[in-house]
Amino acid sequence: xxxxxxxxxxxxxxxxxxxxxxxxxxxxxxxxxxxxxxxxxxxxxxxxxxxxxxxxxxxxxxxxxxxxxxxxxxxxxxxxxxxxxxxxxxxxxxxxxxxxxxxxxxxxxxxxxxxxxxxxxxxxxxxxxxxxxxxxxxxxxxxxxxxxxxxxxxxxxxxxxxxxxxxxxxxxxxxxxxxxxxxxx
Length: 185
Known about the structure:
By secondary structure, the protein is mainly α. It has a domain at 44-106. Helices cover 41% and strands 0% of the residues.
């Protein structure tokens, strides 16, 4: 479809008109609005009081902790003094025991009790500790071979010293029988 002739003529005669220049907005200096506190309830004075309370509370905590440490040190000193006293008592007791167990004192007590020194002292042979001992014979002794032990005579009247005569018991008869020892697993 073709456009009507009058509309075409209007378009051809109408020239585009220039636009008026756009007006620029006036420039001004930007000044931001003053900041407001996130907590509207606390003012500058509230912050100062909160800071002061925090400082006082921390100082009070330090004083309390220092007092607790001082009390602990006092208790520790008291316990150490008790320990030192007990160690001194123990040392005195050890010294007394050592004096009571001295060989010269024991010999003197033996002489007072009527003991005499042996005519001959026999030293036992040394046994090497790195060599294992043979297995002992644990077979029971025959009934007839049990040693007879005689009791020492006792005094019948008080104040008299008992004299004991000992005879050497007969030597037991020991028979050796081969025994087998089960192997350790």
